[in-house]
Write a structure and sequence with these properties.
Number of helices: 8
Helix content: 40-55%
GO molecular function: oxidoreductase activity
Number of domains: 1
Bound molecules: NADP nicotinamide-adenine-dinucleotide phosphate
Strand content: 5-15%
Family: Belongs to the short-chain dehydrogenases/reductases (SDR) family.
Order of helices and strands: EHEHEHEHEHEHHEH
Largest sheet: 7 strands, parallel
Protein name: SDR family oxidoreductase
CATH superfamily: NAD(P)-binding Rossmann-like Domain
Structural class: alpha/beta
Radius of gyration: 18 Å
GO cellular component, one term: membrane
CATH architecture: 3-Layer(aba) Sandwich
CATH class: Alpha Beta
InterPro entries: KR_dom, NAD(P)-bd_dom_sf, SDR_fam
Distance between the termini: 49 Å
């Protein structure tokens, strides 16, 4: 069997958090696989630069849609513009997310809210706005959760909880939207070298410098794989982490 080089030919993908890291890499791979792509995030200049890069490299139509996912009006407009200007929405990657360090006792209400606004509300608004368009195309909705949404994370309970929420929401939606032939996938990475955490002064690519972390492109292949799913099947969940991820846990268990 030969692999079709452009399995997403004729499809339109919308990626949130496309100005950096995983979203940026996913947008490039989806275009490589044949999709036209809409790029959403707040930093417009980055989106425009990426749009030029993807157009030049893959020859696809690319739309930059500056969007703050915490603003439901902007999110609705993001989906409408994608559908109007690229001719429909076949695939949505709800990827935009942030992390904020801080213990439960000390974290300010503002920092707590900013995390929940993006990771929970932003994810919800994105799915809510995308569902009607995805029903029309029997499309695919991919959520980027986290390894932290599978196991307790004592040092980052609020971030972890936002990702458990993402999985709970996504897996429940999968049952609901499956009746309409919409596929739902949750992808959960562990350490990926991106900018996440930069607002606390230490981006992931610095924090993970001494471990075998993944590149955004390596993880984004999971998104590209899930994007190729066709009715009646769905890729429900994918976990992605380094092979020695559990080695410390074993050492702890051994004392
Ligand atoms: N890197 C890892 O190790 C790792 C592990 C597990 C899960 N994840 C998840 O992967 C996803 C992507 O993160 P990343 O690691 O690629 O981090 P990143 O490089 O910091 O990228 C985050 C993206 O989210 C966007 N974003 C943040 N707030 C936004 C808002 N209010 N509205 C719209 N877009 C917003 C950012 O764009 P603007 O600032 O331009 O808006 C940026 O494009 C997140 O959901 C994260 O939780 C990452």
């Amino acid at each position: 069997m030969t692999r079709d080089d452009t399995p997403l030919d004729g499809k339109t993908a919308l990626v949130t958090g496309a100005s950096s890291g995983i979203g940026r890499a996913a947008a490039g791979l989806l275009a490589r696989d044949g999709a036209d792509v809409a790029l959403a995030a707040r930093r417009e200049e980055r989106l425009r630069e990426l749009a030029d890069e993807i157009e030049a490299e893959h020859g696809r139509r690319v739309l930059a849609v500056p969007t703050d996912v915490t603003d439901e009006t902007q999110v609705r407009e993001m989906v409408e513009r994608t559908a109007d200007e690229l001719g429909g929405v076949d695939l949505v990657v709800a990827n935009a997310g942030i992390n904020r360090q801080g213990s439960v006792e000390d974290i300010s209400t503002e920092r707590y809210r900013s995390l929940m606004d993006v990771n929970v509300d932003g994810t919800f608004f994105t799915a809510q706005a995308a569902i009607p368009a995805l029903r029309e195309t029997a499309g695919v909705l991919i959520f980027v959760a986290s390894f932290a949404g599978h196991y307790p994370r004592p040092d980052q309970p609020i971030y972890a909880a936002s990702k458990w929420w993402t999985r709970g929401f996504a897996l429940s939606l999968a049952g609901y939207l499956g009746r309409d032939d919409v596929g739902v996938t949750v992808v959960s990475p562990s350490e990926v070298d991106t900018e996440i955490g930069i607002h606390d002064g230490r981006p992931a690519h610095e924090r993970f410098a001494d471990i075998d972390s993944a590149t955004p492109e390596e993880f984004a292949e999971c998104i590209a794989f899930a994007a190729r799913q066709e009715a009646p099947n769905a890729v429900a969940e994918l976990g992605f982490y380094r092979r020695n991820k559990f080695s410390n846990w074993t050492r702890n268990a051994d004392g």
